[in-house]
Amino acid sequence: MTTTSPDRAPCLGTLLQRALHGELGPDPLTRRIAVAFTTSQAVRHDGRRGGYRNEVLSLRLGRAVGSCAVEPGALPAGTVEDCAGADVAALLAHPLLPVRVAALDAYLMDVMPHTPSHGAQPVTIPAGSSLERSQARAAAVTDLLDLEPGSTVLVVGVVNSLLAELRSRGLTAIPCDLKGGTTEWGEPITPDALGEIGRCDAVLASGMTLGNGTFDPLRRSSQAHGRPLVMFAQTGSAVLPRLLGAGVTAVCAEPYPFFWLDGGPGTIHHYRADDGGTS
After folding, report:
1. Coil, strand or helix at 212
2. DSSP at 181
3. Strand residues in 126-219 grouped as ranges (E)
């Protein structure tokens, strides 16, 4: 596996600048977003004690859709209208980080789609209920962890199906989320991911860290501690594979439409740092 020292590693800002300057594909001034939309959901699965809400900003560029999850209600009024019809260059420099991330995701999805030639390994998520598909996605994500039973995983961005899957494989999870609180099983959720990295054997983190500004500190700290960093990405599914080998060990990339939007079979994509997925 090729690695890069933390102080020299590419980061989200580097990718944004390279895309803005046309170094990763066509001049973004010449590409326009045709459709901008948000997807909002509320979830409460049978047999689960709690529920949760999601909101995702998505931008359509040609055949591609780029996405960034946000806290529900966090986007200012008019954001979607401002994005529709805008050139990609303007959105790569937008003052809102989630807009920049969604624009970069759409741009990279268009020029480097999830195909074997770009390092992607397709994984089928079978048809089923929302809970069944959540559990199948959790199993696919956990498959990217190369850990022995008894190991400890820092989970950044709490997903109950992931916690249950880790437990079923004899792994101990340290749940972490900026909102804190408790898990479905009453376990405390810490808001301080960086403070917990030294206690874990690997880090499993949501792509939502891209949109809330916590990804690069997490990447640098994981690399400095020598901890594998595996990302599960609806947000930035085309962005994170470009950071493999620069602190990111593996990515489970899940482009729009996400598993919770449809009951039929779908495809997600595995990337590993030694599979040719670097930029």
Report:
1. coil
2. -
3. 152-156, 172-176, 202-206
- β-pairing, 52-61 vs 64-70, is antiparallel
pLDDT in tens, 134-154: 999 999 999 999 999 999 999
Query: pLDDT tens-digit profile of 29-74?
Result: 999 999 999 999 877 656 556 566 789 999 999 999 999 999 999 9
- Tokens of residue 276, six digits: 């040719």
* Stated length of the chain: 279
Query: How many CA atoms, within 13 angstroms, populate the side-chain half-sphere of residue 87?
Result: 10
Q: What are the tokens at 143?
A: 């498959």
111 phi/psi in degrees, rounded to 5: -90, -25
> Which residues are CB-contacts of 93 (< 8 A; sequence separation ≥ 6)?
20, 100
Contact 160, 173 (CB under 8 A): no
Query: Which residue, 138, 152, 173, 135, is CA-closest to 46?
Result: 135
Q: Which two tokens stand for residue 244?
A: 């493999």
What is the C-alpha end-to-end distance of the chain, expressed in Å?
Answer: 14
Residue 258 DSSP symbol: P
Q: Kindly give, in sequence order, each residue whose CB lies less than 8 Å from that of residue 39, ignoring residues fewer than 6 positions away.
A: 54, 55, 56, 58, 256, 261
